[in-house]
Amino acid sequence: MIAEAGLAALWLAASMALLQLIAGLTLLRDGAGQLVPLIKPAAYVQGALSTFAFFALMWLFYDTDLSVLLVANNSHIDKPLIFKLAGTWGNHEGSMLLWVAVLSVSGAAIAFFEKRIDTKTLYATLSVQGFIALGFFAFLLFASNPFERLLPAPIEGAGLNPLLQDVGLAFHPPTLYMGYVGLSVAFSFAVGALLTNQVGPAFARAMRPWVLAAWIFLTIGIAAGSYWAYYELGWGGWWFWDPVENASLMPWLAATALLHSASVLATRNALRAWTIMLALVAFAMSMAGTFLVRSGILTSVHAFAVDPERGAFILALMLMYTGIAFVIFALRIGSVKQGEPFQLVSREGGIVANNILLSVILAVVLIGTLYPLAAEAMGDKISVGPPYFNKATVPVMVLLMLALLIGPMLRWRRDELIRIRYWLIGAAAILLLGAIVAWQLAPDIGLFPLLGIAFSLALAVAAWLPLRGRKLLRTPLPVFGMVIAHFGIAVSVFGMAAESGFSSETLTALAPGENAKVAGWEVKLNDVNPIAGDNWVAVEGDMIAAKNGNQFALHPQSRHFFTPPMQTSEAALLTRWNGQLYAVIAQPDQEGDGRWQVRLWWKPFVTFIWYGALLIAFGGAISLFGRMFRRTKKPTRNRWQS
Amino acid sequence: MRKFVPILLMLTAPVWAQGSGPTPAMANRQLADPSKEAEAMRLMHSLRCIQCQGQSIADSDASMAATMRAEVRQQISAGQKPEAIRAWMIKRYGEWVSFEPDFKGARLLLWLTPLILLLASLWLARGLFRRRT
User: Fold this and answer.
1) Which residues of A touch B41 (CB under 8 A)?
2) What residue spans in chain A does CATH classification 1.20.120 cover?
3) B4-101, what's its fold?
């Protein structure tokens, strides 16, 4: 009964989305517009119905109603409650339902809260939002119905992929989806503003909180995915340039660029066409990301999420939305007036540099990810992997860091480099000193880590300089947000560079009682014990790590799952303030002498990578808070707008 | 290059002739010489484990990856150059095995992508800026 009610709610919500779309079309044709007053109520009802459908599914999972196919396939009567509930979105259908529910609620929130933009633009935006929702409702109802019944009902259910029975991973897909939904809202605003010729500061201010929110979720999602790969895959790597990682990185890059150009549009009324373009690209990239993950056209560690037929559906949706959007862009962009002018050396100039460099990185990642597909179509099976992506993107990232050392210090509209000469000299000195010290510490560090260390040190100082000369209590929160996020980048880059440049590795085989050394740590393997979990058995190493008289116990495991059969490593991580000791126990050594393969790494400052990412997200959250709780007045022209 | 490969194979032939081959231990043990190990590690990070889902042979527990790691360390310690080993791997497993595209033909374009894009976007952006008055 609940399943049927949920399904009915979905159909009704889809009809509301259709109503929004049709009403919007009559608005654009300047018709009588009798349907137009229905747009807002339709958005509210759509939001309520989608939310109801999602909670109906959650209830089915809570209740473990095994007569529902999705529950039977993804749950089990004996599963802990938290995983039962997380199971609602821990699968394809449920996660798409969550996506649509968040999308609908966002639409309702726009309808309710948004007062800054022109009414007509708001209606157009809500119609576009309805149009997007309609596509995803169709996808749910025709290709991935979460409420499908199963007859006869099984007795206990199939369970959940063991790799996914991880609290961190239960929250990984929804986090990314929130990000994608936020970008779809930005897309709706952009198309709405284009259609009604309202591309200006008010539009940018209305869109900005959504981009910020999306960007915060994407940042957290990527960082969490990276940390998961780091501790779960058992070889100490934290970024593999895997197609799916790239798919999550591309929307983030686009959103980062969009965030910056939207701030130029909001404060200075410049970069109009460019901001619209980025909003379209950001949404296209989030759809492309979903498509790459679901379609299975790329070999990836996310192979469990694959379904070619659904991939084709998402591809069709993506091509339709972005195709239509770019046609509107091409038709309307001529009427978007050029924004306010500015000089090369100015805050806008710095943000243009940010936009160009981020777009170049985005394009390189996109081309590198898709190149093997194109080559294969032409009968040439090649791989494009980490060596290419590192060499092709890191130099551009270095330029980006350089722009970040200068841009935020410049004034809007026009400035002179001579005005900030003391900082330029200071930055050069930090870069030089940092490089020399890093090179002294490790002569074979490599060029990229060396540059990373030097630039992160300079940026760690540069990030705080925009606060100089301000009264801190009267400084707007978004400025603090920017400062913290930029400092987070310095922290994260420092972690990446230190890990790449200074890590020590020991690969060995130990019998119980033997020990091995890595970077001043002495690790002794005391014993190896078999242990068993719910659905796995493991060998667990009992190790003691000692340094400077301090001793720590480590318990790495090598787990073997039965259904499906799968081998995973549970690395033991010992976190110190200046790095992590990473210990793995693998198979018995093949020489049959009672020794076990042991892998040890000392990774200096590796945790800074994720602390930095958290700081970036925290900076974004402070900014968002500042933007949301400011008076929502009609935008006034500021002194830079002539 | 093609002509060169048989010679490379001959160079490694004595190893195979002894019937030992690369020992499995070399798959999971470092070389004694740190600079050679670093060289081997760099190469291993740029070779795909053809049995896995998009991992390099340096980050995989698969048996195929172990065999390939052993092969790389074996050949490096025999004084082989990394690029020659890559060519050997490509000869054996196809271009698919190398994560690092070479500089030939359309792949050269792939490598030049960042530069081309950077120049193109600078050219496009030049209209944004107002000349200094």
Assistant:
1) 505
2) 1-163
3) Helicase, Ruva Protein; domain 3 (1.10.8)
Q: Is A230 on the interface with B (CB under 8 A)?
A: no
Spans in chain A with pLDDT lower than 50: 301, 304, 631-635, 641-642
Q: Is the peptide bond before A564 cis (omega within 30 degrees of 0)?
A: yes
Burial readout A594-615 (b: 16 or more C-beta within 10 A, e: otherwise): ebbbbbbbbbbbbbbbbbbbbb
Using a CB-CB cut-off of 8 Å, the residues of chain A touching B132 are 343
Question: Does ipTM exceed 0.90?
Answer: no
Please answer whether residues A106 and A179 qualify as being in contact, where contact means their C-beta atoms are separated by less than 8 angstroms: no
CB contacts < 8 A, A to B, total 128
Kindly report the pTM of this predicted structure.
0.90
* A contact test, residue of B128, B130, B133 with most A CBs within 10 A: B128
The answer to whether A504 touches A518, Cβ cutoff 8 Å, is yes
Task: Looking at the complex, report in whole angstroms how far the Cα of residue A273 sits from the nearest Cα belonging to chain B.
Answer: 11
CATH 3.10.450 fits A1-163, yes or no: no
Residues A522, A528, A530: CA angle, nearest 5 degrees: 150
Domain boundaries, chain B: 4-101
Share of chain A above pLDDT 70, in %: 92
Is A363 in the B-facing interface, judged by CB distances under 8 Å? yes
B129/A343 CB distance under 8 A: yes
Considering only the beta carbons, identify the residue of A240, A299, A507 that sits closest to B30: A507
Averaged pLDDT of chain A:
87
